[in-house]
Amino acid sequence: MLRPLFLALFSIALPAAAQTYPGKTVRIVVPFPAGGSTDVLARVCAEHLNKTHGQLFIVDNRPGATGTIAGALVANSAPDGYTLLMHSVSTYIAGYMYKKVSYDPVKAFAPIVNLSVNPFILVSSTSLPVKNVKELVALARSRPGELTFGTVGMGSGAHLVAEMFNSAARIKTVSVHYKGSAPTMVALASGEVGFSVNNILDTRPFVNQGKLRALAVTGTKRSPAMPDVPTLVDSGVEVEANIWTGLFAPAATPKPIVDRLNQELTRVFDTREMREWLLNSLGGELPANTPEQFAAFLASDTAQWQKIVKQLD
In degrees rounded to 5, what are phi and psi of residue 179? Predict the structure, then answer.
């Protein structure tokens, strides 16, 4: 008798919880240092949610271990909507790469909303005598095992895409891992490494200043953020992969709270002003998605990344 009564009362309480949410400060945990694209997106979300709710959303940067430190923190937090996680493809996939993580990457999180999807970009140092993908591939084949590529971290999405590129182009190059995007771009601009794969936000300033060469983007089409840059497929290398950045809550967070956050952030970002900001600032586009659509996307997207992860084992 008591259990049915409890379940009935619980089902009534969920909508009420969503209506009164948030009643205290909400943390949006970011698995990267301040200043990167994921951090910027999280801060924009917090700013707009603060306008709606009144200074209740803050960003908490917890970098390290390719996002698994932040992932563990949120996965083990109370599922009440007061600790959220701004995952990127890199930090989400890391949960599948590392064998000793304290959470189940499949079951630990409730997807809320996918806020930005954009391609990676393949760039080369100006010290490297190449001006396009064909020339980079030819150079790498003529010097097997000599060319180096910089990554923003071992196992990051950018690292995995670079490995996809090596495999598809049938070339052998050497990875050099850095701690984040900034040191990777500095190393590339100085000629310390030959090429890299990274996001558009962090590479575009170097390209515009003539310090790096943009060779190709990894999307299914050219990016409106850099329309003069061809895709890898157009350049003769069959690789397609995108960066995504989305908001998550711990699993078992009440669905009314998940739905409310989805609706509020979709309303904020699905405007001409914010779509232009996403494109011009991050090189990204807003996909239309519900929490269920985001979950379905994750299932198919993760399968692609797991294939390359297995190749690296």
Answer: -95, 75
C-alpha distance from residue 222 to each of 122, 159, 226, 229 (Å): 13, 21, 7, 7
CA–CA gap between residue 311 and residue 165 (Å, rounded) = 13
- Note the helical H segments in the chain: 2-20, 37-53, 68-75, 89-97, 133-142, 157-169, 181-190, 200-208, 255-269, 272-277, 291-312
Strand partners, 212: 125
pLDDT for residue 2 is more than 60 = no
- Stretch 260-268: mean pLDDT: 96
Q: pLDDT tens for residues 103-155? A: 999 899 999 999 999 999 999 999 999 999 999 999 999 999 999 999 988 88
C-alpha angle 207-213-217 in degrees, rounded to nearest 5: 90
Q: Are 61 and 74 in contact (CB under 8 A)?
A: no
The rounded distance, in Å, linking the Cα atoms of 216 and 121 is: 6
- Distance from C-alpha of 152 to C-alpha of 244, rounded to nearest angstrom: 16
